[in-house]
Amino acid sequence: MNTKSTRDLKGSPDADRNDQREAARQPEDTLTEEDILALWGFTREEISSLLWLRRWYQHGGSDRAVIVRYLEFLRLLVISGDLEL
Question: Contact, 15 vs 9, CB < 8 A?
Fold first, then answer.
């Protein structure tokens, strides 16, 4: 009777995933985001734009959400009759 689970076997999918994770942790084999985007066919200019847009949105570059909240609040006041136009 075999007491080892499929996770313990060397050829199991879990062992393969663990090997892939270990390989991904190797600093010399790690691809940067720019490398990955280039492999997907993006040009240097497109990569630069994508990374700039991500930084812009992550650091509050779009203030529309704040304006929309104020407008929704004003709309609620008008609908409830607390504010007349």
Answer: yes
pLDDT digits over 18-46, tens only?
Answer: 666 665 555 567 999 999 999 999 999 99
- Res 49 pLDDT > 60: yes
* Class of residue 11 by CB neighbours under 10 A (exposed 0-12, middle 13-18, buried 19+): exposed
- Domain residues for the domain of 31 are 13-80
Spatial separation of the C-alpha atoms in residues 2 and 12, rounded to whole Å: 15
Q: Could you tell me the pTM of the whole model?
A: 0.41
Instruction: Tell me the C-alpha distance between 45 and 56, whole Å.
Output: 16
What is the maximal distance between C-alpha atoms in the chain? Answer: 82
DSSP 26: -
Q: Is residue 63 part of a domain?
A: yes
